[in-house]
Design brief:
- 4 copies of one chain form a homotetramer.
- Chain A is of the alpha/beta class.
- The first copy, chain A, folds into 2 domains: about 170 residues, Rossmann fold, CATH 3.40.50.720; about 100 residues, Orthogonal Bundle (N-(1-d-carboxylethyl)-l-norvaline Dehydrogenase, domain 2).
- In chain A, about 45% of the residues lie in helices and about 15% in strands.
- Chains in contact: A-B, A-C, A-D, B-C, B-D, C-D.
- At the B-D interface, helix 12 of B face helix 12 of D.
- Chains A, B, C, D: This is 4-hydroxybutyrate dehydrogenase/sulfolactaldehyde 3-reductase.
- Chains A, B, C, D: GO terms for molecular function: NAD binding; NADP binding; oxidoreductase activity, acting on the CH-OH group of donors, NAD or NADP as acceptor.
């Protein structure tokens, strides 16, 4: 059984720490809110007086905090972990923070010969309770192997995201996409309902199309992802159909802010000469606009 | 074998008419561009001099045209179909046009005791050639039964969209969603690439989450679609994660127009009191903003 | 006194026609809604039965209609003006319609040797009543001279917009700018109010800055409009200040859809290498994105 | 002559401090970059080794730094100003920082009985050199009186923004409006140019309309600002004209991201029942969407 410091006992941290205790690990817990520790204390955790106190003698230091500034503070601030940490321990940050802040923390720890992993989690607080979180592990192969027994107390699936820093990056991209997509799906649905079309009817069709299956694994692999921009469905036609939908929405007073923005992206792609390319060339267009590559 | 008028011989219409001929039907074809008819003439089609001429003696009149104005013109304009159409025939409009224009045409034909179906198609021109289009049939059950043998010459799957007008509506919603989603997916991807994260790594995770699986069949059915807005994942947290992604993008000069618009939608939802509701409540929020229902 | 056909007797057309009558001109009026003509009939106007009837013997044909399709119909449709118009008359379209539709009408009339002017109006229906509209005259110098006595019965200022087609173009640009600016001003104001800052205090400062004076005549003339992009205020700094405002707004749940879109425009400008240029270089950036010119 | 600490010697800070020296004040300067102080040292400033050292014996402490975190650090961090500051001195923060961070600093200083003013500046680095900055003074009447002789060494106009915290708030709003307006003006201009209309012609008209004069002092004072929403120009009509412009832009491939967002705002206003109100009611609409007030 491992000796683990657990810092950050919020809605996610508390059940995660509880599961570690249930699996028999020795925990030293810390939270700025002293009452957060009580329940864990009752389960056998030592309640530390500071991050510095929490990490004493621990092999793993887990942080689960609201933002990167707090992660930084508990490690490097007054009475921070850095003041008494074992040099052979691993700091595992499971928070969702800014990737560049996460990189900074890794680099700063490395200069002190301390290992760091970025291991945010997926799914919900219910999964935290049942120990079935999705673990997005960022770190070296060796680090992930070493940490897996600990991580699997909190989740039931570990994804090796391919290297240090990738865990927090994958989390960011996944959440961006799923959260923005939620709003876009709502726009499509209110347009559907404004046309008196039952959503189930639309879903019957969309189930088999990129509208619900997404593009990453349907239209993109054989086109833009392998550099083929010959049109299966031209940007000009996509622009036309999108404009038709916006006209209808506009007539029905259905505001579609994301839809409207997407139309302007297609207009911009046309303006820069991509009208006759496949619609997946929108990715190439955005790469150009992001300075990722030149035309 | 049926007698069919086919009006509109473009990139989609020509292969569709060809497949009808191959299956042995008698075709009278018309297009404003006279050369478009030549190939079909060689295959045995009668080349009509006007829509009025095309529909003579036909049971089915199929239109496949770029917009609703043209559909209207070939039916009701000078030398239009209406001047010689059989009263027991069905007009099947397979174009992608404005749903309210489609409704107008149906109503106007109904007043002349002529039947009308809106039957746009899904998939690409390659599928038109191979006769494997997706047929989105809008009409009564009887109409769809009667037209099915004809429609199955052009496609390999018919979806009964649930009533007259629903075919064109489903097409509109599906295309809106898939075309806008294409651009949103590109935004997520350029952010991914700007963070030096390989897209495949992100996809490994997104494959199992709403980011790629969509929300319609994952997060929504047990929440907003049955009126339960208690949070699995709060709008406040979704807003926080989205803001984090936008901050990162902004720092890396990755313009995310759709992502930015989506964040303002979440802000608006919070401003109107939905911060502690489930993120699927964005749908309820947009319903309120669209005048579909009151708070 | 002139013989004038006036077609379109809505909220604007009725008072405009009334003023022409008051100045002693002979009017033949037409509207699809027959009751619209009654008031003018009482004032001495002849009520025509069709556009064809209205234009009989007239030197000037004025149209004031909701959209280009209707303007087209009253001129070229059944019983349209074209059927009995004098070849030496001028058609003056005072409607706000699509510029390219306006061009089409001009070209079509020109091929019939009939003159056409696009002369939309500015200001409100109150000004239509008092005869103080702003007249945006599109046409040749000769046409404007010839029409001025008529136009000045309806407005008190004529702007020669520089040529045929420019009248309707100026109207479009002016309305785009003022209507969108209205919404942007509202965004700034709700942010102001959310910060508990009285708008009057903000106005005291903004009165002397581009925030209220605009950019066209302040920051642009010595910079981007003469091709000088050396920075007085760098795009990078504008982007930073704008991001600060959006962060504040976001924290206060003030949705700023236009502000958010503008930030992404600045991000895109930075991504394409303009960060160290003057902020007025945003115009150059948008020119590139619109295909107006290459980098 | 006053004893002044000046912390932050960047592109703005250096000329501002230089002007204070030229007027005969005694300066103690500090910057994390040691070379930044050299020029001021040559002009007679004492170069401090820390903020703590800089404030020794000073009546005024001026900070001119890139962000609120740095302002906080130089005051409250290690070797910060707070460690040796005179209790009767005033801290004058002239940076552009987050208003809520500025409030925090004021409150924290107040609890130590130290006065604080937020006094950001307007105009450019050229004005900093010539001592003609616009001074946006946030503070009590007494504070502004006391600080004015110092401030007028750096600028030629002081605006009393009406109270503590208002200086930084006015700056934020002014910059939001002017920076976003710059991008909106560019959108209008590329649409203008795409229509082959010279900008000067459009400006001739816009000079006299809200398009260039803004709304704050033209259309708003007699309408929404005094609660009168009876229409001079209806939201429905503004929406129509805006849609016309967007259609034209779309046809010409001119992407108008801000214009597109503004149209959706008008759609939303119509959807929530404001179609027949005056266009200035957009402000009321956004107030509702921001949670500032209920319908």
């Amino acid at each position: 059984m491992a000796h683990i410091a657990f810092i950050g006992l919020g809605q996610m941290g508390t059940p995660m720490a509880t599961n570690l205790l249930h699996k028999g690990h020795h925990l030293r817990v810390y939270d700025i809110n002293p009452t957060a520790s009580e329940k864990l204390n009752a389960l056998g955790a030592y309640v530390a007086t500071s991050p510095k106190d929490a990490v004493l003698g621990c092999e793993f230091i887990i942080t689960m905090l609201p933002n990167g500034k707090l992660v930084n503070d508990v490690i490097f601030g007054n009475n921070g972990a850095i003041e008494s940490i074992n040099r052979n321990s691993i700091v595992i940050d499971m928070s969702t923070i800014h990737p560049l802040e996460s990189d900074d923390i890794r680099n700063r720890l490395r200069s002190e010969n301390i290992e760091f992993m970025d291991v945010p989690v997926g799914r919900t607080s219910d999964h935290a309770i049942s120990g079935t979180l999705l673990i997005l592990a960022g770190g070296t192969k060796e680090q992930i192997e070493k940490a897996s027994p600990i991580l699997l107390c909190m989740g039931n699936k570990i994804v090796n995201t391919g290297g240090p820093g990738n865990g927090i990056r994958v989390k960011l991209i996944n959440n961006f996409m799923s959260i923005a997509l939620n709003a876009l799906s709502a726009e499509a649905t209110v347009l559907c309902e404004s046309l008196n079309l039952p959503l189930e009817k639309a879903l019957e069709v969309m189930e088999g199309t990129p509208a619900n299956k997404g593009h990453f694994t349907t239209t993109w692999p054989n086109k833009v992802l392998k550099g083929d921009l010959t049109p299966s469905f031209m940007i000009d036609l996509a622009h036309k159909d999108l404009s038709l939908a916006l006209d209808v929405a506009n007539q029905l007073n259905v505001p579609l802010f994301m839809g409207a923005a997407s139309r302007e992206i297609y207009s911009q792609a046309r303006a820069t000469g991509r009208g006759k390319q496949d619609w997946t060339a929108i990715l190439e267009h955005l790469r150009n606009c992001s300075g990722l590559k030149d035309d």
